[in-house]
TrEMBL record:
A Pfam family that the UniProt record links to this protein: MTS
GO molecular function, a single term: methyltransferase activity
NCBIfam families per record: PrmC_rel_meth
PANTHER family: HEMK METHYLTRANSFERASE, MTRF1L RELEASE FACTOR GLUTAMINE METHYLTRANSFERASE
Domain ASCH residues, every copy: 270-400
Higher taxonomy: Bacteria, Bacillati, Actinomycetota, Actinomycetes, Propionibacteriales
Origin: domain of life: Bacteria
Originating organism: Mumia zhuanghuii
Protein name: ASCH domain-containing protein
Length: 400
């Protein structure tokens, strides 16, 4: 390291950089002269994101062009891009919605030369930047689906969404380089961070091809709410990528098919095989049980696409007994996610198990959830529930 290099590192470190050596290396490699290096350094010391200063960001092995004022692609979003690469069928169509620099589209394009790639964003500056990063794909400006050409309606195999999901109140807690230099529209996800996810969920189904899916980047803590947004609009929601180290997940939504023959409907198995399952199935058939409750954790226990996932409104199920015999067919008509402490009396009574108070309902369910079978299923021998445990409250109706 030269004296000048060392001085640059010290200046960056004094400004608060925790990766001063790496930033110094990038700045020097990206500058063509001492004057340009100094100009870049001044911008960085003033708080501008390094990627906007040098004009590029590393993403999935690619160098993505970044212009001032555009959301900087994060490494965590590689989860979303890789999920899109894996999910796209041969010769399919992949849309990068809320594309920013178009990093997801660029990586899909790089990895899959057989697919058609389209990107869109509400910010015209971001769209211009995305066009710089796409070799074959096209980028459009507009609000969510309003930006897409009409020929994509019903033709999209994968719609990858990196919409803003920072809760409004948390933006003030973000590093200055993000909150002061990236567009608010690319950060602010509303009160709970899921407002744009809800808008995506409300409008995405008509744009999906048969068998298509929407992939949404979200935080680990927001998985239940992102999944619920998709489920409320007729999509079974599962986690297809989950990185606990960085607290990021990708939730996939696939439209359900209530028109399937009974034998092809997904099974609805209450509790575990045995007398309790058979009794609950009988209560459903008799009309005495119209609600059921699941732990959020049990629906997403593995954090991958093999999980049961969030059931969807409009989804139909074949209720089966312990011998896998079909008892009846039901449809999910309502879903809620709630804290255990917030479960209401009507839901508890409508479970049909004789509980006349929420306290009795909670006591019986706690025994089940903290029992050996559930603990084994969750892989957690010490699992317990408390007031803040999240549960899915589902209302059913018998349709056959």
């Amino acid at each position: 390291m030269t004296v000048d290099d060392d001085r640059l590192v010290l200046r960056l470190r004094a400004s608060g950089s925790v990766f001063a050596e790496e930033e110094a290396r990038v700045l020097r490699a990206s500058s063509g002269s001492a004057d340009e290096l100094e100009a870049m350094t001044v911008r960085r010391l003033a708080g501008e994101p390094l990627e906007q200063v040098v004009g590029w960001a590393a993403f999935g092995g690619l160098r993505i062009r970044v212009v001032p004022g555009v959301f900087v692609p994060r490494r965590r979003t590689e989860l979303l891009a890789r999920a899109a690469v894996a999910a796209a069928p041969r010769n399919g169509v992949v849309v990068d919605l809320c594309c920013g620099t178009g990093a997801v589209a660029a990586l899909v394009e790089h990895e899959r030369d057989d697919v058609r790639v389209v990107a869109s964003d509400i910010d015209p500056v971001a769209v211009g930047c995305a066009r710089l990063n796409l070799a074959r794909g096209t980028a459009y400006a507009g609000d969510l689906f309003a930006a897409l050409p009409e020929d994509l309606r019903g033709a999209c195999d994968v719609i990858a969404v990196n919409a803003p999901y920072v809760p409004t109140a948390d933006i003030a807690l973000m590093p200055p380089e993000a909150r002061d230099h990236e567009p608010r529209v690319a950060l602010d996800g509303g009160a709970d961070g899921v407002d744009v996810h809800r808008r995506v969920a409300a409008g995405v189904v008509p744009w999906l091809a048969p068998g298509g899916q929407v992939l949404v980047e979200t935080s680990e803590a927001q998985v239940p709410w992102t999944a619920l947004a998709l489920a409320e609009h007729g999509m079974r929601a599962r986690v297809v990528r989950w990185d606990e180290e960085i607290g990021t997940a990708v939730v996939a939504g696939t439209p359900v098919r209530p028109d399937l023959p009974v034998e092809e409907l997904p099974p609805l198995e209450f509790a575990f095989a045995g007398p309790l399952r058979d009794r609950l199935a009988g209560l459903v058939l008799a009309g005495g049980k119209t609600t059921t409750t699941s732990l959020v954790r049990e629906l997403f226990v593995g954090g991958d696409e093999d999980d049961e996932g969030m059931p969807a409104v409009g989804e139909r199920w074949r209720v089966v007994d312990s011998d896998d015999a079909v008892v009846c067919v039901v449809e999910t008509v309502e879903l809620r996610v709630a804290r255990l402490a917030d479960v209401d009396l009507r839901h508890a009574v409508d479970e049909g198990e004789g509980d006349e108070t929420v306290a009795r309902w909670r006591a019986s369910h706690t025994r089940f959830w903290e029992g050996e079978d559930m603990r084994a299923f969750l892989g957690d021998p010490g699992f317990t529930v408390d007031d803040d445990t999240l549960v899915v409250l589902e209302r059913l109706r018998v349709v056959g």
